């Protein structure tokens, strides 16, 4: 195999690994911090919606409602 092709493949694999690690870190932060979810709601609501749908798909319900209740109460 051509050395340039090996470098391209290796670079692609490294980029994929960085993406997977980044997605895991983001999910862990969203999953453990209600304050971070509120920040995500303000800045990136589509990402938060994907989070809610994925955890609801896995059978965990009520997180969205808890967040909305807390944020509503904090405004009052």
UniProtKB/TrEMBL annotation:
Top-level taxon of origin: Eukaryota
InterPro entries linked: CEBPZOS
Listed PANTHER family: PROTEIN CEBPZOS
Name recorded for this polypeptide: Protein CEBPZOS-like
Organism: Balaenoptera musculus
Taxonomic classification: Eukaryota, Metazoa, Chordata, Craniata, Vertebrata
């Amino acid at each position: 195999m051509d050395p340039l092709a090996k470098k391209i493949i290796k670079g692609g694999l490294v980029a994929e690994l960085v993406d997977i690690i980044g997605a895991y870190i983001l999910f862990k932060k969203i999953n453990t911090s209600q304050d971070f979810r509120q920040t995500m709601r303000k800045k990136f609501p589509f990402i938060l919606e994907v989070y809610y749908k994925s955890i609801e798909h896995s059978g965990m319900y009520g997180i969205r409602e808890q967040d909305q209740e807390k944020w509503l109460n904090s405004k009052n």
